[in-house]
Design a protein that fits this description.
By secondary structure, this protein is of the alpha/beta class. The chain folds into 2 domains: about 110 residues, 3-Layer(aba) Sandwich (Cobalt-precorrin-4 Transmethylase, domain 1), CATH 3.40.1010; about 120 residues, Methyltransferase, Cobalt-precorrin-4 Transmethylase, Domain 2, CATH 3.30.950.10. Strands 3-2-4-1-5 form a 5-stranded parallel beta sheet, covered by helices on one side. Strands 6-7-10-8-9 form a 5-stranded mixed beta sheet. Strand 2, helix 3 and strand 3 form a beta-alpha-beta unit. The termini are far apart. About 35% of the residues are buried.
Length: about 240
């Protein structure tokens, strides 16, 4: 018996209509799937209901990825449907799977078993933010979350600025949304006034906010970033066309 395929299913980034950000081809594939590996069943059911599946939601199998023991995944437990010839979907809580989430471990398991992995097109917050930043898209790095406490956080911010300057590289990271305002304050305190910072909030949503400017300008910012999913991008080459 031939194995089924593992489809990497992009999720919405916020309260957006699926047809606005997911191509018709992606929606067609997702609507036919009956087995999903997810981070959270409740939120995944809600998203698939909005997409409009070809069968009742109660007929769909949801397998929650154990994030506390993700490195000891059981092949049959997580990908048994594929082994039995059925296609499966791997869905992140937001955006594309395997980027800033533990889904890559499932994909690695699929490869080791000879299961075909098929990435589907959809929104990725990091790539969309990089596209909109005006920073270097030829050399960039994503760093996940920075340390919460100082001086580790202060050192991490300065190290990213130094790395960006030395490598002419855009540095991307994310933060827990309720810490966004504190993160901006820390960036303004620890980055050079000429370093460029882009903050992209609620990407693809109706209240999307993307601002790209130097730290000197960010120090004048009066907006509220609290509880808004955001991507932060640092670019410290000091050779921006805006300053030539």
């Amino acid at each position: 018996m031939a194995f089924g395929k593992l489809y990497l299913v992009p999720n919405l980034l916020g309260a957006t209509q699926p047809e606005k950000v997911l191509p018709a081809g992606t929606l067609d594939v997702v609507r036919k799937l009956r087995h999903f590996v997810v981070e959270n069943t409740r939120t995944s059911r809600r998203v698939l209901s909005r997409i409009g599946m070809d069968c009742p939601i109660d007929d769909i199998e949801f397998i929650e990825l154990d994030k506390h023991d993700a490195r000891n995944l059981d092949l049959m437990e997580n990908l048994g449907a594929c082994l039995n010839g059925d296609d499966m979907g791997l869905m992140s809580e937001a955006g594309t799977p395997c980027v800033a989430d533990p889904g890559a471990l499932v994909v690695d398991l699929a490869h080791s078993a000879g299961i075909q992995v098929v990435p589907l097109t959809g929104p990725n917050a990091m790539i969309l933010a990089l596209m909109a930043s005006g920073f270097n898209g030829q050399a960039f790095a994503f760093h996940g979350y920075l340390p919460i406490k100082s001086p580790e956080r202060q050192n991490a911010i300065k190290n990213l600025e130094r790395r960006s300057m030395n490598n002419n590289e855009t540095e991307l990271f994310i933060e827990t949304p309720f810490r966004n305002n504190a993160m901006l304050q820390d960036l303004c305190k620890n980055l050079h006034p000429s370093t460029q910072l882009c903050i992209a909030c609620n990407i693809t949503c109706d209240d999307e906010l993307i601002i790209s400017q130097d730290i000197a300008e960010w120090k004048k910012f009066k907006g509220d970033l609290n509880k808004k999913p955001a991507v932060f991008l640092i670019y410290a080459t000091f050779q921006s066309p805006r300053r030539k």
